[in-house]
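Input:
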Amino acid sequence: MVQASVEPNDRRVLYITFDAPLPQPGDVMRAAFWDLVITTGEGASRASVDGVAIKTCSMLVALHGFLNRCPPGESIVEVALQLARPVPDPVRQVDIVYVGSSGTATLALRGDFELARGRPAGQPVPRAHIDEADVYVDGKWTRVAGEDAAFDLHAYGGYMRALAPGAPRYWGRAGFYGQLRVKNSHTLDPSSVLLYGTYQRVLGSGDFHGPLQSPIFNLRAPGFELERRGDQRNFVVSPVVTVPVRLSRGALGPIQPGFVYPQMTLFGGAEVVKPLASRDAAANGWKARTLVGATLTTGIAPEQPWLQSLTLRAAYQLRLLSSPEIFKDLRGSGAFELGGQARHRAEVSFTYFPVKWTGVSFDYEYGGVPPVFVLAGHTFTVGLTFTLKQTSYGRLVILAP
Amino acid sequence: MADEKSSSAGPPKADTARPPAAAPARAPVAVPAPAPAAGPCAPPRAVDPFLGHGQAVTIVCASARTIPANLARTLEELGVSGAPFQQSVRTAVTAAGYTLGVDDVPAAPGTRLIQVVTIIQNARRRA
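Output:
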């Protein structure tokens, strides 16, 4: 059992969802196997189950709702228990106890949504108040013998919310994002700061079309690219279309817990740039960059001793410039130069977590980010990683560039 | 097996997932068996005031293009991008004749499909 909820429109019904391995019909379909303890402000009481209905795992069967028998070859993923009496409201907690042929299990319901608290029949669904907040920080501190310590920091944060969330028409989402990059610096002086407002809208119904999901239109405006050491400040407007791709054919079958199915995003768009300040006056006019790229994320979290999880993230961006821009080639003189060559950027990060919150990351990086593209060549880094959450790819999913 | 009887066949209803509320106490649950598609002789489709659990499961699984066996999985595990998923769920709920705001559908990478079901199942029928 992984989750259960009270039916808000009929509090005598309780839904229970199962995880792999899915139970056999004979394991769950007897009412006598189930028992409930309902705790209210007046104390705890037992509630018995009158009947059991099941939902099996195929999409075809799902279309027909719950069943009272299991078709051959099907597994049970959900159970609907009909109780002898309704779950009262208010209620503090409901404990579901299973004692059956395959063992025992318990599940406690405490949340407002699970218990459908304060939602009498006839009341519309309450606002979930879901905003997209996305914060990502990745940092390294390295010290080489005989040299000063150097920082390497990458931080990314943003917030988005729907426009006119109560309106029947879909208006998209708006918000703001910021990205800070400190690259191989003796101080925490950022080599690149990107600040931008953003507007996001899903184009189409949002459905899958083969392996592709509906495209997402992202407009970054107004945007600012700042770099202090290069004394470069750009104003940017950037429309980008992102297409999420799941590397699967047809409906995705059962997957094991912790396995992150490989997902890509393909994106293409433009960056219209006006330098507000620059080291080179020749580079001050309006210019455009064509931006294309892709991301890939996958992972697995077996949560076994010495193998909590493995994650792989990769991103590639290519910027084609309409006119020359400032760059710094660390492979050569290291001086600021003006050039119109294509700006490649590739990042690959493979992380191994032997224990839950600490792991080892292997990072490969090539190229740089605006406004001053620092061409650093191929860089390989190995380091310790600490994380508060094992797998989260929201950053790459929402706005990869 | 406690409940082996089949109930009368009918068209797939919006809320076939929910055992009937009027069932007497201590009576076995009477839920529909797999039903054929609605034909010309089928009774008129019931108008439910709420989306219901069964239809919510169907919509969520279709939007994530997966099967109910993955209801316990997160969007991240299923390789589903949140923004299009959110729009797909809302489009399907609206097309079924119920109302749902954009912000009512959770779509964070760590959101389980069953959490979305729990939230959208009470979407109210459009007036």
